[in-house]
Amino acid sequence: MRKLIITEFISVDGIAEVEKLPSVAWNDEMQKFKEDELADSGAMLLGRTTYQIFAGSWPKETGDFADRFNALPKYIASTSLQALDWQPAELLQGALPDAVRGLKQGSGGNIYGKRQADPIWRGLR
Questions:
Q1: Of the chain's two ends, which shows fewer C-beta atoms within 10 Å, N or C?
Q2: Is the dihedral of CA 73, 113, 8, 15 positive or negative?
């Protein structure tokens, strides 16, 4: 059974909102963490807001990391999105806990959720 793992960049004082985070000094340790996370990942679980943020920037990125990140299946929890332009992507149907349970029972690497502050996680607590 696959695991659902939630990851997020957050400041020491608990700020997780992208626009409020100070500029991040990327280092080798962070790079290795994200590369290991990506290597373990079989899919992404995203809410509408995170999907829209990522879809607005990741398709423009290039390189090995971006190619792998963009190619991951993306499962989106939203009742308002009509179109998913950043592919491969699929809107989840039905109750979120049931949909996630089904994803976890599937094959492939672990499922990574991004941005713990995203409202979709409230439905899984």
A1: C
A2: positive
Q: What is the pLDDT of residues 27-46, one digit of tens each?
A: 888 889 889 999 999 999 99
The distance of Cα 17 from the centroid of its chain, to the nearest Å, equals: 15
Tokens at 43, concatenated: 């899919």
**The two structure tokens encoding residue 3:** 């695991």
Residue 65 phi, psi dihedral angles, 5° rounding? -60, -50
Owner of token pair 């989106």:
76
Q: What is the pLDDT of residues 53-99, one digit of tens each?
A: 899 999 999 999 999 999 999 999 998 998 999 999 999 999 888 99
Answer positive or negative: Cα dihedral of 93, 99, 100, 104: negative
Helix, strand and coil percent figures for the chain, each rounded to 5: 40, 20, 40
